[in-house]
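Quick sanity check, Putative Zn-dependent protease:
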Amino acid sequence: MPNSERSPSLRRKAAALLLPALLAAAAPALAPAQPVGLPDLGDSAAQELSPRLEQRLGDAIMMESLRDPAYIDDPDLLQYLTGMARQLSAHAPVGTPNINVFAVRDPSINAFAMPGGYIGVHTGLVVAAQSESELAGVLAHEIGHVVQRHIARGLVQQKQDTLIMVAALLAALVAARGNSQAPEAAMAFGQAAAINSQLGFSREAEREADRTGFQMLEAANYNVNGMASFFGRLMQASGLNERTGQAFTRTHPLSIERMSDMQNRARGVVIHDRPSSSDFYFVRAKMRMLQANSGQDTLEAIRYFENRTTEAQGIERSAAYYGMALGYVRQRQYDKANDAYLAATSGARTHFMLEHLAIDLALARNDTQQAISLARSAVARWPEQRGLAMAMAESLQRAGRNQEAVDFLKEQMLKWSDEPRFYQMAAVSYSRLGSAVNERRNMADYYAMTGALPAAVEQLQQARAASKDFYEQSQIDAKVREYQRRLKEERDLLKRFQS
């Protein structure tokens, strides 16, 4: 049985788990799933789902999606995917929301846009991409849906019935925030994908996303043929084998006309012969290993990388050894992992993901001093890599050097104030240092950034009770009022839909 059947895509999970309940609650029947066209957004439509409301909805979905088991919480992958998307969206019209890309552990070839500029990419899609320009082409297409507000326009077209779906989604998300065991939390991606699938973009909308994405690809100096070549291979594969490429071609209807349109546009522009970056090959190798769902899958991935080391050259060969090393780490065969790491770095080849692996191997050997030395050197060489900063903090914590860890994490928070894990790690070190107030304040920040506002308020109340400093208590009181205001806004948002 292929992996895609053993691990159903989140869209199929949504169809099985969510849609029956929502459809039953949304009588009369919903409008057809595939809109014929997309309407203009008049004043009333804009009031029904304004850009601000769409952003709020996307934020709410994403906060709960962080707890979905399929979500890949890997800073190296998230930074790479979001960085590529923001290079593309820098050439989008003014007013386009910030694009954030996340990875989903699923071997099927798929990607999907959510409200608020969030884009999900399946591991299977990255693994299937033959070049960085192909991956950029898919991201550009999804950003095109965001730029054209296809989700909002589709929701408006579905009118009241689909708004009931949105209200049910928001209610489920808010309920899940108050209970970490709520089943809704594990369905967040499925709920988002259900709305996306229910809308079913028309071919005209897909062409619109193609053209918008094409313009961004060209402006960002990617090879514009990447979009056409990837979609072309998927279209051919889906025709030859119903299971291959099925997820993407089902939710993004491809056609000869669309392919011809992209190819004709490519003839009228300068083709940038942009080689794939080394980051692309290492990210693709890690994605292949991360989508392995069992010990047998891991062995098969290791064998794949072993074959690649005899076929590939240069950076691709190094990435293959890196993939092997990751597989051996999963099997706890650290000596073999270290041998693969040494092979990957032969000829003085280096990459930040290789250095991250070296730190992890040192920690696996409980050699914290070596881990700190490696991490310090790596952070100095690649200061913009969040994953290395986290590895540095973890190495200090494992060595029991918690005050140094706190000082280092404070620096990272100034650089990346939107990274919740820095606050969580700081809370751990403050706890070990016996600083209860700072521990709880940092945990409150972590909970607030991951959408658990009630838990954040509880942490702040505990911090206030432990503090004897009037100024500090005043700061905590102000933060509690802020979080309570945000909770009220969520309730008001729900009432707006329910009314």
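Posting the structure with no commentary besides this: The two ends are 47 Å apart (CA to CA).
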